[in-house]
Design brief:
Blueprint lengths: L12 H12 L5 E8 L9 E2 L3 H10 L4 H10 L4 H8 L6 E4 L5 E2 L6 E6 H6 L1 H25 L3 E4 L8 H13 L4 E2 L2 H7 L9 H5 L4 H11 L5 E3 L5 H17 L6 E4 L4 H14 L6 E4 L5 H9 L6 E4 L1 H4 L9 E8 L2 E2 L14 E7 L5 E8 L8 E2 L2 E5 L2 E2 L6 H12 L18 E3 L1 H22 L3
Parallel strand pairs: 6-7, 6-11, 8-9, 9-10, 10-11, 15-19
Antiparallel strand pairs: 1-5, 1-12, 2-4, 3-5, 3-17, 12-13, 14-15, 14-16, 17-18
Helix pairs in contact: 2-6, 3-4, 6-7, 6-13, 10-11, 11-12
Length: about 450
């Protein structure tokens, strides 16, 4: 399988055809592109920054290999001169970005790339690809965390994520969004995420009866016994688990918990709790899995579900209710000239920008202002940080555990009405600075005047 990391062919063809035309027309001036999300999907009123680490790693390793160039030559689309130019192609630009784990909102630049036009253009596809999935999943995960709070959530999505790379990125992004662990063992190794998991129904079915399966597992993992109790009958399974828990107690061991994976979780968890308490196992936890997302979590808890933690899988791992965001990467400045797009419903903000965040006296998020890069607001925190210079990462990226803490800290400062999992009371306030408004108006006037001049209109 072709390695994707750093491969300059991981792009859409039109990035390369544009690059070839830029090359032929000697358009090498500095350009700045902005990455942002145009609209909120249903129910959402914020996003969680994620994916930056992968973007920076890709840009540092970006190159065309001899095999890449040979393939491009075979397509018959590119001149020998352009292919020769690509031999030494590297990303040598700068990146300003909102750190992972921070909140951001519609039209705010998640990152801005400044480089020569060809360098900044060719990377469009991979920048969107890397950021889009992780922002989408971190945002979805955060909604599950909010619905379950303060209960712990574990990523159970691996078997149904859209491919192996997505499985890894979902584990990482869900941790950014507040999850405490994953079932993905490789993600545990690569990212340092705590891993969780005990048994499947096949383990129970492999034994002649349920109690033998439970006893066998308890012998193998006496310090981490979580028994899956719904293979045949949930409450019968809970009683058998309680019996095994009592047997363990007589040997100086403890039943860590039970897992419910089907049925009416609200009712079954209440009955299971009573069974455990009656058996003197009140400290045993109840873990629930099976089709959970923020909506099902909220429903179960609103009906009195007695659950200590949840395994959240498919619906989080594919962001089932909002499987894509309208994320765009658009040119905002070229050769020192601010530019924008006026397409209906897809207008963009010109020039190099900064996002300033304001808080109330009680440390709650108050509003954001999108301004020019050199705007100055004494009370506003500038969110976009310079993270890459001349193609090299300039900051030490924090560990994943710290990014998760960044998120939880800032999320606690966001008003509850913006966190609700259904449509709420409007959007978080995002304003445009006066100077950026002036730039917008100037560019729009210039474009309209140029259009009239070329069409012969007065």
């Amino acid at each position: 399988m072709e390695k994707i990391s750093g491969s300059a062919l991981f792009t859409d063809l039109y990035e390369l055809t544009m690059a070839a035309s830029f090359f032929e027309n000697r358009m090498f001036e500095p350009a700045t592109f902005s990455l942002f999300i145009r609209d909120y999907p249903p129910g959402r009123r914020y996003f969680v920054a994620a994916g930056l680490a992968d973007v920076l790693e890709y840009l540092e390793n970006l190159k065309f290999t001899p095999q890449d160039l040979e393939y491009l030559e075979k397509t018959g689309r590119f001149t020998p001169e352009f292919l020769s130019y690509l031999e030494n192609f590297r990303f040598r630009g700068d990146v300003h970005a909102i750190p992972e784990g921070r909140l951001f909102f519609v039209n705010e630049p998640l990152l801005e790339v400044s480089a020569s036009l060809i360098e900044a253009q060719v990377i469009e596809t991979v920048v969107i690809n890397a950021a889009h999935l992780q922002v989408m999943i971190a945002t979805k995960a955060s909604r599950c965390v909010h619905a379950a709070w303060p209960r712990n959530l574990v990523d159970f999505s691996l078997r149904r994520t859209h491919g192996t790379d997505a499985g890894m990125k979902v584990a990482r992004a869900s941790t950014i969004g507040g999850f405490t662990g994953t079932s993905n063992v490789l993600a545990g190794k690569v990212y340092g995420i705590p891993v969780f998991g005990t048994m499947a129904h096949s383990f129970i079915q492999s034994f002649e009866n349920e109690i033998d399966a439970f006893r066998a597992f308890a012998r193998t993992f006496p310090e981490n016994v979580v028994l899956l109790v719904d293979t045949y009958d949930t409450l019968s399974g809970a009683r058998i688990a309680a019996q095994v828990g009592q047997e363990m107690g007589r040997e100086g061991k403890k039943l860590k918990g039970v897992r419910l994976d089907s049925g009416n979780i609200a009712r079954l968890s209440q009955s299971t709790r009573q069974i455990l308490q009656k058996a003197g196992l009140g400290e045993a936890t109840i873990f629930a899995s099976g089709g959970f997302d923020e909506y099902k979590i909220q429903d179960v808890l609103s009906r009195g579900g007695d659950v200590d933690s949840f395994g959240v899988g498919t619906k989080m791992g594919v962001s089932a209710d909002a499987p894509y965001f309208d994320m765009a990467y658009k040119l905002v400045q070229y050769a020192g000239r601010p530019v924008l797009k006026l397409s209906s419903g897809k207008e963009t903000l010109a020039s190099e920008k900064q996002v300033f965040r304001f808080k109330t006296s009680k440390n709650k998020l108050k509003k954001d202002i999108i301004g020019l890069r050199d705007d100055d607001f004494n009370e506003g925190e500038p969110l976009l940080k310079k993270v890459m210079r001349n193609g090299k990462t300039t900051v030490k990226l924090p560990p994943l555990t710290r990014i998760r803490e960044f998120f939880l800290d800032e999320f606690s400062c966001l008003d509850e009405k913006y966190k609700t999992i259904k449509d709420g009371e409007g959007d978080y306030p995002v304003e445009i600075s006066p100077r950026l408004k002036d730039i917008q108006n100037q560019v729009v006037r210039q474009l309209r005047m140029a259009s009239k001049g070329k069409t012969g209109k007065n």
